[in-house]
Design brief:
Layout (H helix, E strand, L loop, with lengths): L1 E6 L6 H13 L3 E2 L6 E6 L1 H8 L5 E5 L14 H10 L3 E12 L2 E5 L2 E5 L6 E7 L2 E7 L1 E5 L7 H6 L8 E7 L8 E5 L3 E6 L7 E5 L2 E6 L4 E14 L5 H7 L3
Parallel strand pairs: 1-2, 1-3, 3-4, 4-16
Antiparallel strand pairs: 5-6, 5-16, 7-10, 7-14, 8-9, 8-13, 10-11, 11-12, 13-16, 14-15
Keywords: ATP-binding, Cytoplasm, Kinase, NAD, NADP, Nucleotide-binding, Transferase
GO molecular function, one term: NAD+ kinase activity
Pfam family, one: NAD_kinase
Length: 246
């Protein structure tokens, strides 16, 4: 089996990365950056996001400050690699979403957002399944179930435990007690409304600014393919959320 290793860029984990490289080679794996069968991600949540971009199955090794979805501890890497050779693992799928915005299209593992960082509000109309509503505030996030453990949780405190739903989070909404809506996994349209003068909001995918939008332009968020992660040990996102500061 051909592996591509990606890792967190931190001197603290370079010795671990070297150790895993040597271990993988000694166990008969081939390290191949161009034609890998599997991505071995060493780090935390940020490293996992990079691994998703390759579109290959992923094995995760936890070596970051936060890694709710990383299941293999460094001391168990040899056991996990041995089980990988034997096919002794669980295939877990994570639903992605894609976003079409002026000038581009991207896939997201965690969330898509339309956000404003000026000291004033924006108005966004959200449309889903024939229903629409308009909200004024700092923006709107659309999160996947796995994304609900991150940015959106700091806004709403909600964790999605089912993979057939999405969360619409309202960022600092004005004149509404509602902070989020749990909706079916379907297409969601976001349109920034005019307030009578020029405004420009950011389009954000997994924490990165990928573009901008102006009043009247449609942002389309829709279901996409699934990311594949091979699991060797049980993970508990709820426990991780409650105890990661310890």
């Amino acid at each position: 089996m051909r592996l591509k290793i990606i890792h967190k860029e931190s001197p603290e984990i370079y010795p671990l990365v070297d150790e895993i490289r040597k271990l993988a080679l000694s166990m008969g794996f081939v390290l191949d950056d161009r034609n890998a069968d599997l991505i071995l991600a060493i780090g935390g949540d940020g490293t996992l996001l990079r691994a998703i971009d390759y579109g290959k199955p992923i094995m995760t090794v936890k070596a970051g400050r936060r890694g709710f979805l990383m299941d293999v501890e460094p001391k168990h890497v040899e056991e996990a690699l041995d089980r990988l050779k034997k096919g002794d693992y669980i295939v877990e799928e994570y639903p992605l979403i894609k976003v079409k915005f002026p000038g581009g299209e991207r896939e997201a593992f965690n969330e898509v957002g339309v956000l404003y960082d000026e000291p004033e509000s924006i108005v966004i109309t959200v449309s889903i399944s024939g229903t629409s509503f308009t909200v004024e505030g700092d923006g709107v996030l659309v999160s996947t179930p796995q994304g609900s453990t991150g940015w959106s949780m700091s806004i709403t405190g909600v964790f999605l435990m089912t993979k057939d739903s999405l969360e619409i989070s309202l960022v600092s909404p004005i004149l509404t007690p509602v902070k989020s809506l749990i909706v079916p996994r379907t297409e969601i349209n976001l349109i920034m409304e005019s307030k009578g003068y020029d405004q420009k909001a950011r389009v954000v995918v997994d924490g990165n600014v990928v573009g901008n939008t102006k009043p009247g332009e449609k942002i389309v968020v829709s279901p996409s393919k699934n990311a594949i992660i091979y699991r060797f040990f049980k993970i508990d996102p709820v426990r991780g959320i409650m105890s990661w500061r310890k």
